[in-house]
Amino acid sequence: TAAPVVTIDGPGGAGKGTVAQAVAARLGWHFLDSGAIYRLLALSAQRAGLDAGQVESLVSVAQAMKIEFPATGAQAGQVLLDGEDVSEAIRSEDCGQFASELATQGLIRHALLERQRQFRQPPGLVADGRDMGTVVFADAPLKFFLTASVEERARRRHKQLMQKGISANLADLLEELKARDARDSKRTVAPLVPAEDATIVDTTDLSADAVIEKVLKAATGCV
Ligand code: C5P
């Protein structure tokens, strides 16, 4: 039987990454940041000079790019594209916007499906994204959908960027999040919606620790 999966979906800035990573570490499970895969494709495509309309070439890039998320060793925590550390490059707002444009295409999503499913390995997986519970791991025994007001999500993004020494404008971030929310929610293929069997958690007034404990508590009773 397949290894268990906990899915954590939601819009940008809702705290999925922080929560999913911490839960995976506490359970000793694998972790999938599926947004990073879309961002890696966006970066590869950008470098290859492709635009969102060149779907056939984009599918080839999606199949060929070599991606690694080392969990141990000197490069632990890095995101590697064809061996190069692109952890910072993929976090730019530019890359996120382009990723969300590419993510509207069914053929592109399909090309990335199997690559995401390969992360499901014993003893288990915590997967973070937009469609983990609805499409990629629809059979997951435990699903969460994290939300927060768009203002709070913009504040969190802002703080995250400042901590990394990247300057950003709060009002711009707010507009960009709104644009990405709209694109992710309105697309016809795998739109951003909670799975029917997902637990919805509004994190606007919750600390990351409180959300992590909530997920862990549910996971201990269920998987
Ligand atoms: O989560 P993150 O901001 O890194 O994701 C970047 C973009 O990739 C999202 O705005 C979304 O359009 C796309 N994405 C997706 N499905 C996923 C993860 C990310 O469509 N499972």
UniProtKB/TrEMBL annotation:
InterPro entries: Cytidylate_kin (IPR003136), Cytidylate_kinase_dom (IPR011994), P-loop_NTPase (IPR027417). Keywords: ATP-binding, Cytoplasm, Kinase, Nucleotide-binding, Transferase. Its EC number is 2.7.4.25. It comes from the Bacteria. Pfam families: Cytidylate_kin. It catalyses: dCMP + ATP = dCDP + ADP; CMP + ATP = CDP + ADP. Signal peptide: none annotated. ATP binds at G10, P11, G12, G13, A14, G15, K16, G17, T18. One of its GO terms (molecular function) is ATP binding. CDD domains: CMPK. Residues 6-219 form the Cytidylate kinase domain. GO terms for biological process: nucleobase-containing small molecule interconversion; pyrimidine nucleotide metabolic process. It is found in: Cytoplasm. Its main location: cytoplasm. It is an enzyme of class 2 (transferase). Belongs to the cytidylate kinase family. Type 1 subfamily. HAMAP family: Cytidyl_kinase_type1 (MF_00238). This is Cytidylate kinase. It comes from Spiribacter salilacus.
